[in-house]
């Protein structure tokens, strides 16, 4: 069972979480609980590290000490939940990353878990004790605290579920499952009973912030069955059909062609006009952006109709847009394009479904539905199980609703 | 160097502390710094543990998890100070109790340090790195976090100074040294250049809250030279005569008969009248109080003039007064005293000095000075280097000033 920051934001909510955990334990389950820091605490801690200032010249990177400070938030929650479980009559104890240990690499602030040495942890659980584990943290081989990056508690939970060979990893969050699309946009959005790892990965990478991408990758590679459900569920209302199960495609009996419609407004479109049409041009541009850690997403290149030059369009994250334009302009003389422009008034809308692998006509349905509503498609990109289109931002809701209806997603359930 | 909670209460004060540490390091000193939690943080954390509620019947004590929660405060400060030192151009890293390790017993919440295994720590310092150590915490043999109790960071600092064979342990606090008496009561109070461990112990146990008693005991047994000084000193104003040195009696050349006048308003006087005068009576009473962890201090027994019964008077801490009276009344039938009463309107005033061992007349001077001011002495107790009197609370300031003058303490310096 994993609970995020809003679920453990204060002593009352921690008591709520303890009741949920106790109810599951009383059903006879052996339980490990992974907790995040109380909502707001991580931000407070990060602000203090910022106030310390950047390291002086010649001094080693800050990130190891950043981790020391920030990891304290999960330590507090783990101790408090263990105390609260005992107050409710349960045997419980807390475990820090270094106590288990959860071995992480030394990429402080965004470390990856290398191993979970779960023998002592498993023995304690077998002994009848609920294990309350500080999420988001591990320990390096040198004995330093390392954090996994924002949202890393999901990854902690999946890694521990894998190490303990748990029957399931339940991620409690502020939504009651994974939906066919954002219910704030489409009221007829339906909760999915099951979704495949691959689909969940696409959803996560497209901005549906239910699970951290890395946690889904890990669940897929370790074959951990994950359940997404609401931390506001009452213990008495819990059943096997609560929430959404994220699992292997083969465990989903009723296959759908499309499982969901996702959208993201975090994109910016960059267009380069009048590019010389010879090899190596795009390589120069994308190397420059890649070296600066700018993630480039959708890319389209086309020859301009009336000349020997080409045009190129691609998307980057909105927060990288200004920086990307500076980098590109610094290449103007070398590369020799005529004009570069950025458009932040765009949105990416995607349909996702493992059924696309074996079904044709998915794209046709998508483009038809959008055309019917007069939505102009600026860029298209596809993967094996996803089609994404870039459109003008103002059409986002209209497009999402049109696609949700076109694939019959309001009929699921 | 050890800094308490008010010295590291926010990023600005941590930056101040970093400047003090950096200045000492630039003089060529190798430095370990011990820090407390930011002022107020420990109280916040304790309040959260209280909110969790008491453990249910049959569930193990809370104190191990209390320690997990509360120890996080020092972790935050240690990380932040290491970051801030780096921002000021110094090499630094933080050390948690479990990383050094500081081995503590498992008396959670009030653990004692059993060993400081300082090899790795010492090697890091020898390598040119300032060690920033989370105070107040250790790790048990089972790998659990244990805290040393309130004020335990002083003890951490002394233990680490001993393990590293440091030339001195500088305790930075909100006063600039140890005074002949409380300067808020007597403006002519003088800062002592040196004070012996034994005198400091008596001062600490009498409520002069400069150093935690256990830290002074440890300094005495390990022969660690301690210096008490203000954390508000400017780096440029630091010299060998800053603050007060706490050291072995033999290192103090100019011996004084009396070094200081201390007082405490935390006492309550309990009187039992008409006690049967036969053996075992006082044993019954003090066993009862001892079993309930009530600390009994000054004791006087006297035979009543006109009968075969005795009267007995003793003091307890004010916070234990009501509980003590309940315990005593529960013994009334068994012991057979006539009447018990409590008086909380009292204060204990003490004169302290190692010179008492070899000088007579100290008590005579004390009683004379108090008699001159019309201060009535209710109870007297003495140790080898201390005389304490219990008086009516209203006379506290008058008595302190009279004794300060009587022993010429305003002439020191």
Explain what the structure shows.
The structure is a homodimer of 413-residue chains. By secondary structure, chain A is an alpha/beta fold. Chain A has a domain at 2-251: 3-Layer(aba) Sandwich (Carbamate kinase), CATH 3.40.1160.10. Chain A has 13 helices and 20 strands. Chain A has helices spanning 11-26, 41-51, 63-70, 72-87, 119-126, 152-163, 197-205, 213-222, 281-291, 321-329, 332-335, 362-372, 396-406; strands spanning 2-3, 32-35, 92-95, 102-104, 113-116, 130-134, 137-139, 145-147, 169-173, 194-196, 226-230, 244-247, 260-264, 267-276, 296-303, 309-317, 339-343, 346-352, 379-383, 386-392. In chain A, the strands form five sheets. An eight-stranded mixed sheet of chain A has the order 3-6-2-1-9-11-12-10, sandwiched between helices. In chain A, strands 13-18-20-19 form a four-stranded antiparallel sheet, sandwiched between helices. Chain A has a four-stranded antiparallel sheet with strand order 15-16-14-17, with helices on one face. In chain A, a hairpin with a 2-residue loop joins β19 and β20. The relative contact order of chain A is 0.10. The mean pLDDT of chain A is 92. The interface between A and B is large, with 48 and 48 residues.
Q: Topology of this protein?
A:
Two copies of one chain form a homodimer.
Chain A: E1 2-3, H1 11-26, E2 32-35, H2 41-51, H3 63-70, H4 72-87, E3 92-95, E4 102-104, E5 113-116, H5 119-126, E6 130-134, E7 137-139, E8 145-147, H6 152-163, E9 169-173, E10 194-196, H7 197-205, H8 213-222, E11 226-230, E12 244-247, E13 260-264, E14 267-276, H9 281-291, E15 296-303, E16 309-317, H10 321-329, H11 332-335, E17 339-343, E18 346-352, H12 362-372, E19 379-383, E20 386-392, H13 396-406
Parallel strand pairs in A: 1-2, 1-9, 2-6, 3-6, 9-11, 10-12
Antiparallel strand pairs in A: 4-5, 7-8, 11-12, 13-18, 14-16, 14-17, 15-16, 18-20, 19-20
């Amino acid at each position: 069972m994993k609970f995020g920051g809003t679920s453990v934001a204060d002593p009352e909510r921690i008591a709520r979480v303890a009741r949920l955990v106790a109810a599951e334990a009383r059903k006879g389950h052996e339980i490990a609980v992974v907790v995040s820091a109380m909502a707001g605490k991580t931000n407070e801690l990060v602000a203090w590290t910022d106030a310390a200032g950047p390291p002086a010249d010649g001094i080693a990177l800050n990130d190891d000490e950043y981790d020391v400070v920030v990891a304290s938030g999960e330590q507090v929650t783990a101790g408090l939940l263990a105390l609260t479980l005992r107050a409710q009559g349960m045997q419980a104890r807390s475990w820090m990353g270094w106590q288990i240990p959860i071995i992480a690499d030394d990429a402080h602030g965004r470390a990856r878990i290398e191993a979970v040495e779960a023998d002592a942890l498993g023995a304690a659980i077998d002994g009848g004790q609920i294990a309350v584990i500080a999420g988001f943290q591990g320990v390096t081989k040198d004995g330093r605290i390392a954090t996994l990056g924002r949202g890393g508690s999901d990854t902690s939970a999946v890694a521990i579920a894998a190490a303990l060979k748990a029957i399931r990893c339940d991620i409690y969050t502020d939504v009651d499952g994974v939906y066919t699309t954002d219910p704030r946009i489409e009221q007829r959005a339906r909760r999915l009973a099951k979704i495949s790892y691959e689909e969940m990965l696409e959803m996560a990478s497209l901005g549906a912030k239910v699970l951290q991408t890395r946690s889904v990758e890990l669940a897929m590679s370790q074959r951990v069955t994950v359940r997404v459900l609401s931390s506001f569920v009452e213990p008495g209302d819990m059943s096997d059909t609560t929430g959404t199960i994220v699992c292997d495609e083969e465990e989903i009996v009723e296959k759908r062609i499309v499982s969901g419609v996702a959208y993201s407004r975090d994109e910016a479109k960059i267009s380069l006009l009048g590019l010389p049409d010879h090899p190596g041009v795009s390589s120069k541009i994308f190397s420059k952006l890649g070296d600066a850690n700018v993630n480039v997403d959708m890319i389209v290149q086309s020859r301009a109709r009336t000349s020997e030059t080409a045009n190129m369009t691609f998307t980057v994250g909105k927060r990288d847009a200004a920086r990307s334009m500076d980098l590109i302009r610094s290449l103007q003389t070398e590369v020799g394009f005529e004009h570069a422009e950025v458009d932040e008034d765009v949105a990416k809308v995607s349909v996702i479904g493992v059924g696309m692998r074996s079904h044709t006509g998915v794209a046709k349905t998508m483009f038809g539905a959008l055309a019917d509503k007069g939505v102009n498609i600026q860029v298209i990109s596809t993967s094996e199980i996803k089609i994404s289109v870039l459109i003008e931002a103002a059409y986002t809701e209209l497009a999402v609703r049109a696609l949700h209806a076109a694939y019959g997603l309001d009929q699921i359930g």
